[in-house]
TrEMBL record:
MF annotations from Gene Ontology: transcription cis-regulatory region binding
TM stretches of this protein: none
Protein name: AT-rich interactive domain-containing protein 4B
Gene3D superfamilies registered for this protein in UniProt: 2.30.30.140
Lineage, top ranks: Eukaryota, Metazoa, Chordata, Craniata, Vertebrata
Region (Disordered): 119-168, 227-249
Domain Tudor: 58-114
Entries under InterPro entries matching the protein: ARID/SWI1_ChromRemod, ARID4A/B_PWWP, Tudor, Tudor_ARID4B_rpt1, Tudor_ARID4B_rpt2
Protein's organism: Thamnophis sirtalis
Gene name linked to the record: ARID4B
Keywords linked to the UniProt accession: Chromatin regulator, DNA-binding
Length: 249
């Protein structure tokens, strides 16, 4: 929803927050193809009409009395009911990338935005044998708005032990692994291939200390697994198919 003091359209050189890969990043408008749709109500007969802003004589503001140009060149008084910015804007991000966006994907700097979170469903979880590199989303510092606390500040309150645990988790994050553990009732061995994901990827599974969160390739479920029961799958490791067969026995 637009703010009351927001302009009907944006001009070249305006600093904005532009939507990029689900998050709003700092950018500047490079070019603009202006198109503002204006819905008006004529004062003489209360009929309504939607025209482009170049047919309007007067300020573009809801509730303002303006003059609307007719096809024959004459003008009639009307009241603006609604403004819709249908312009196309080309913006430049801090790193030089350019993108052409609609007005709905731009916000004036200083407004508050909520980034769309990336989910595990966006990661390729099929064909684990064909993984060549860790599946980790790219990080960017493109002015993305967040409440993230810099590592320098948060690390001061962390113990050396917690730091080591975090490093071990980071090393496995995004890796395809083989899980060999014992069921909670200690009656059978469990073995399956899976993907190590962030501990906050699942709201239903609590990750205990010295455990990591793994999503199984077998059934897609999340599990909290002790680090000692997880080993990375390499070329010399048994194929995931063999692990699946072993887990079924």
């Amino acid at each position: 929803m637009k703010a009351l003091d927001e302009p009907p359209y944006l001009t070249v050189g305006t600093d904005v927050s532009a939507k990029y890969r689900g998050a709003f990043c700092e950018a500047k408008i490079k070019t603009a193809k202006r198109l503002v749709k204006v819905k008006v109500t004529f004062r003489h007969d209360s009929s309504t009409l939607e025209v482009q802003d170049d047919h309007i004589k007067g300020p573009l503001k809801v509730g303002t009395v303006v003059e609307v140009r007719n096809p024959d060149g004459t003008y009639q008084e009307a009241v603006i009911n609604k403004l819709t910015d249908a312009s196309w804007y080309t913006v430049v991000f801090d790193d030089g990338d350019e993108k052409t966006l609609r007005r709905s994907s731009l916000c004036l700097k200083g407004e508050r935005h909520f980034a769309e979170s990336e989910t595990l469903d966006q990661l390729p979880l099929t064909n684990p044998e064909h993984f060549g590199t860790p599946v980790i989303g790219k990080k960017t510092n493109r002015g993305r708005r967040s409440n993230h606390i810099p590592e320098e500040e948060s690390s001061s309150s962390s113990s050396d032990e917690d730091e080591d645990d975090r490093k071990q988790t980071d090393e496995l994050l995004g890796k395809v692994v083989c899980v060999e553990t014992i069921s909670t009732d200690k009656k059978k061995n469990i073995c399956f291939p899976g993907l190590v994901v962030c501990s906050n990827c699942s709201d239903e599974v609590a990750v205990k200390k010295d455990n990591i969160l793994v999503r199984s390739f077998k059934d897609g479920k999340f599990s909290s697994i002790p680090r000692k029961d997880v080993r990375e799958i390499s070329e010399s490791s048994p194929k995931p198919d063999a692990a699946l067969k072993q887990g079924k026995n």
